[in-house]
């Protein structure tokens, strides 16, 4: 095998290494909570369990019970999940189904939703126009249903968003404690029975330190140099046998 082929095969093997995410926390709000070994959990706060309506969205995971937040104010009271004693890690990724419930009034009505990690926005400005306004914005989340009734409150219809596609919810993180805050805000936010939000199928993954990810540039140089030396040694051996 030529030196260039040796290096190419080696690089292909490295590129094919699987991603190294592991489950940190998950909750479907129907009693199934999973937590990585040794990790402490507080919350999620400020939410009640409400019943999802029966419908096509059940297959997407908005099913059984979901965590419902109806608080008022600007900002409204956040639903907070705190994870402590997290093993050494480099990255965290958050996914959940977001229900924008009842009479959201969009950008024009100043009704917004955001997610923060340790006090810093990961995604913000999320809004929809269940009642009035014309702007939908999901920060990279994928709209699954609009104009449906996701719950028993039929005061305007609801919107369901899959937040697993929002790039902002995958972020560098290494501290042993992570505080996630889910919150509505905006001068038009009314809350109560008029406007609310909910989440279901919350899944948080993390990347433990020391697990093979994409090698650093210095590591690449060492590996390529090492394979080059191996190729030279093979050629020398062939010359010796000739
Ligand atoms: Ca559920
Ligand atoms: Ca509703
Ligand atoms: Ca409003």
From TrEMBL:
The keyword RNA-binding does not apply. The keyword Signal applies. Keywords: Signal. It holds the Pfam family PEP-CTERM. Residues 1-21 form the signal peptide. Residues 214-237 form the Ice-binding protein C-terminal domain. This is PEPxxWA-CTERM sorting domain-containing protein. It comes from Sphingomonas tabacisoli.
């Amino acid at each position: 095998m030529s030196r260039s082929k040796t290096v190419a095969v080696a690089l292909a093997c490295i590129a094919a290494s699987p991603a190294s995410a592991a489950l940190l926390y998950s909750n479907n709000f129907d009693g199934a909570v999973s937590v990585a070994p040794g990790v402490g959990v507080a919350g999620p706060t400020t939410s009640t369990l409400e019943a999802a309506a029966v419908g096509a969205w059940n297959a997407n995971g908005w099913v059984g019970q979901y965590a419902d937040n109806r608080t008022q104010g600007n900002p409204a009271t956040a639903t907070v999940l705190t994870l402590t004693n997290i093993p050494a890690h480099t990255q965290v990724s958050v996914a959940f189904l977001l229900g924008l419930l009842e009479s959201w009034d969009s950008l024009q009505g100043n009704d917004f939703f955001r997610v923060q990690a340790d006090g810093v926005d990961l995604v913000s400005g999320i809004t929809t126009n269940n009642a009035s306004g014309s702007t939908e914005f999901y920060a990279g989340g994928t709209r699954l249903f609009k104009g449906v009734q996701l719950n028993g409150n039929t005061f305007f219809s609801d919107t369901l968003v899959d937040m697993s596609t929002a790039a902002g919810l995958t972020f560098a993180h290494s501290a042993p404690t992570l505080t996630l805050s889910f919150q509505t805000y905006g001068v038009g936010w009314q809350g109560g029975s008029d406007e609310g939000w909910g989440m279901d199928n919350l899944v948080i993954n993390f990347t433990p330190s020391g697990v093979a990810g994409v090698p650093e540039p210095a590591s690449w140089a060492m590996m390529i140099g090492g394979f080059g030396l191996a190729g030279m040694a093979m050629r020398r051996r062939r010359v010796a046998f000739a």
